[in-house]
Design goal:
By secondary structure, the chain is α+β, with helices and mostly antiparallel strands. The chain has a single domain (9-99), classed as Aminopeptidase (3-Layer(aba) Sandwich). The protein contains two helices and five strands; from the N terminus they run ββαβαββ. It has a three-stranded antiparallel sheet. β4 (81-88) and β5 form a beta hairpin. The longest helix has 16 residues, at 39-54.
Length: 109
């Protein structure tokens, strides 16, 4: 938080195994008091820009529990679209993705 210099959470790019493929996932965790203030979108967009502009990757994903509506909204604000649902971490997880050209990020595109 700019005024208090208090950390609000963390964000970054994490390697994830998605059905045998190594993917770069944009992840973030924020303190509950920081929810709903745009910080997640700001952090996620920063990670997306870094991945595409600095790392020169073609595609990035977010792995989201289907009931996590707030994270779905963040993914959509990054231009991501739901690609598929997978089983991971003993639960069902939706895979959202986007490619550098802004298209839906299916591996075939």
């Amino acid at each position: 938080e700019k005024e208090t210099k208090e950390p609000l959470g963390q964000s970054g790019i994490v390697l994830q195994n998605v059905e045998g493929q190594t993917e770069l996932e944009i992840g973030y965790m924020l303190k509950r008091s920081a929810w709903g203030k745009g910080y997640a979108v700001e952090a996620a967009k920063g990670c997306l820009a870094y991945g595409f502009d600095e790392m020169k990757v073609r595609r990035m994903v977010s792995l989201i529990r289907p009931d996590n509506e707030a994270s779905v909204k963040v993914a959509m604000k990054m231009g991501m679209k739901k690609e598929k649902t997978i089983s991971k971490w003993d639960q069902m997880i939706d895979v959202y993705s986007v490619t550098r050209d802004g298209k839906s990020g299916s591996l075939e595109s």
